[in-house]
Amino acid sequence: MAGNVEVAHRVQPTSSRLTLPKLGEGFAQVVPALILILLLFNVPLVIMLGWSFYPLETPLANYEQIFTRSIYLKVIGNTFYIAALTTVACCLLGYPLCYWMWRLSPRWRLIIASIVVLTFWVSILVRTYAWIVILGNDGIVNRLLLTWGLIDSSVSFLYNQTGVIIGTTNVLLPFLVLPLFAAMMRLDRRILLAAETLGAPKGVIFWKIFFPLTLPSLAAGAILIFILTLGFFITPAILGGGRVPMIANMMDLLINRLPRWELAAAISGVLLVFTMIFFAGYQWLNNRQQAS
């Protein structure tokens, strides 16, 4: 017994000596990446937040200006409104598409998923200008509607909120479809087969089992779409024609035209706070979905 204790005391320091160098080596490998992230992301962010408190005599003057002037509140509210509508549109289009893909054979799933992935290879600028050809006053949609006699004059789809929502939905829809489809593929089909064996109708199986199990993934994807829409610039600028005020467009005005860098930094700080709140919700739902 005494011999075993002596052996244990001898082995323990040796194992400690073996563990510490491994931790040191791992940390040394991570340091370059940490420095790169610090210099490229964190330092500019801190500088931007620092600008928002100028002049130092009245550090909160820019933030007070944001929440006391109606024009800034209107732009922020309009951005959240468009982001909410875009999120709803992506959910209404993306969930049925994912469910349809889930019901396909493995071969057709791969084909449709590849088509969705191909959209990332097309420039956002090209896709946005394509909507001008499709939705313009003399575009494809208006020509078809006039030919079929459904309208008497061209419908204005562009340079308003409708055009912006259509464009942003088209660009951001794959960001919802791919993770939601992956979550559906991880679902254990034996649960659905068991319910079907017990005599449950297909509608009951979907609403009582399938939809609740995929709802956390849908909610996480919706938050992601909402966050991405808050900072969207190219599509609202082109399809909105400068008539649809959003935060990114206002930032361009404050930085490149006026310029009011301090106020732009304060607006960025406010947007960052909201984004972090929604991102925390996204992470919580994503972790909950993975745990289940």
Overview of the molecule:
It is a single chain. The protein has 292 residues and is mainly alpha-helical. It folds into 2 domains: 1-51; 68-291, MetI-like (MetI-like fold), CATH 1.10.3720.10. 80% of the residues lie in helices and 0% in strands. The chain has helices spanning 2-51, 61-68, 70-103, 106-118, 124-135, 140-147, 161-185, 189-197, 202-230, 234-239, 247-256, 261-291. Helix 3 crosses helix 7 (161-185), helix 5 packs across helix 7 (161-185) and helix 8 (189-197) runs antiparallel to helix 9 (202-230). The longest helix is centred in the N-terminal third of the chain and has 50 residues, at 2-51. The model is unreliable at 1-21 (pLDDT under 50).
Q: What's the SSE blueprint?
A:
Layout: H1 2-51, H2 61-68, H3 70-103, H4 106-118, H5 124-135, H6 140-147, H7 161-185, H8 189-197, H9 202-230, H10 234-239, H11 247-256, H12 261-291
Q: How would a crystallographer describe the biggest sheet?
A: none
Shape: globular
Q: Can you tell me the residue ranges where pLDDT is under 50 for at least 5 consecutive residues?
A: 1-21
Share in helix? over 70%
CATH architecture of the largest domain: Orthogonal Bundle
Number of strands: 0
> What is the tally of helical segments?
12
Question: How far apart lie the N and C ends?
Answer: 47 Å
Tally of discrete structural domains: 2
**Estimated share of beta-strand residues:** under 5%
**CATH class value of the largest domain:** Mainly Alpha
The CATH H-level homologous superfamily of the largest domain: MetI-like
Q: Remind me, CATH topology of the largest domain? A: MetI-like fold
User: What is the rounded Rg?
Assistant: 26 Å
The secondary structure category is mainly alpha
Q: What is the helix/strand order?
A: HHHHHHHHHHHH
Mean of all residue-level pLDDT scores: 85
